[in-house]
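Lab notebook: predicted structure, single chain.

Context: the supervisor wants predicted structures on file for every construct in the current expression panel, including those that have not yet been purified. This is the next one on the list. No modifications to the sequence; it matches the entry in the shared construct table.
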Amino acid sequence: MKLPFLRLLLPLVMICLGEAQAATTELRTFTNARGASIKARLVGVKGDQVTIQREDGQNFVLPLSSLSPADQAYIKAAANSLSAVPASSGPQDKVEPSALNEAIGAALFADEALWQSDAAAVAQRLQLPQESKTQDQSSYRLYPKPDLKWMGAHPYSVALYAQKDKVTSLSLVFANKGDLFGAKGSGEMHFDKDTPPEQAGKIVREAMDKDLQAIAASLTKLLGEPRKERFGERGAGRMNMQRWDWRGHALLLADAQSEDKEPEYVGLQIVPSAFADAGGKAAKVSDAQVREFARSSLERRPNGDVVLKNIPMVDQGPKGYCAPATVERAMRFMGMPADMYVLANAGSSGYGGGTSLVRLFDSVGRLIRSKSRSFDSWQGKLELKDVARWIDRGIPVMWLLQSTEEFNKIANRRSEERRNVSDWASWKTRIESESAQAKLPKDKETNHVVLIIGYNKDTGEMAFSDSWGERFVERWISFAEAAQISLDGYYAIGF
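Prediction complete. Output recorded below exactly as produced.
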């Protein structure tokens, strides 16, 4: 059985898009000395180091000598033409970073491409707090105050994504049907919201049109007229975009609408130009790689806790996007890029939130299966043995429940007290006693989706994670208590 190609190219270093302007457009199959292969394009050659770019826009650097004789000959022949390509591929590249930053209204760009930049440094100059940090992924997100403007429009969410501490993309969401009718706060407070007015659709459409006009005018003034393109994955977010390019960066402006032509959101994505050239379709990651990562993320603690780590956090903010945010977390854990706003569109989320789970999971399921992943759903009583079967495989479970005030009080208190437990036998006795006395009423106004990420067979407890920020990354409740507010619906992405 052959190991994945990239694991055979040692030493192998993942890098960002450093020489995009010199990249060839030809995709070819590169093969190493042991016969493993990958489909990619040649980006650059420096001494004995070769940079190739996978179909999803991600770059890798490896020794020339690690490749087959045929590939070495191809690279040597192409080296002269690569070095002859000028640094600028179009007149818009002559625009200085300072001028573009002034038009944007933020210190986003520098002489170094975003894809070459340390993500923490970029986040710091943009004043984006860290949202998540795992073994190989990180993200930074800000829900800005109303007075912040980018390109003459107010972004409701600014999110920076990174892999191995290098920037991979920036996502800005402007006027949208979720945040325009957000609740009174984040976390548990997102359930406390007013009913959107009957003219909500008109309000969103007018706000979106205003933002689209302001953003397009700012970018066109400096970078020229945009191109019209299709971008994204089929089944969960493929849409029309206005595209501007600048020094290896593609700036993609979306006027997102549902299948019923309902206004959804205005979004600006900044991604590597090569990734945009590929239509935003990410390359498949092998089952072997995902399986190895998932199982390596399983932590078995001395007290009997079995918990999945390395699951990216996504903070849904003050709106009812728990389902899209939870799905994004599960997909990214399984090696698939995702964005909760795009997923909310696929799930026909309502004004202020509230997602059609049937529609969302149907769309997401098609996308996931197209990536050669399994997507399972089932119903039934919440039981430890069923949860353990998935967690032991390294797979988090998306769980439908009613996140009531009483339930959250118990989970918050229990999770805090658990950190200081030393006598686990006494803790088990206490959990059994409290669970036997608990009576948790259901409340349909608190319908919610979370990730089940762990269990403890000895104490009869379950670990779950809400999409409410790092403070909610690991919470604990007994199975007996959780069963009282469970809606008994479950989804899981497998391999």
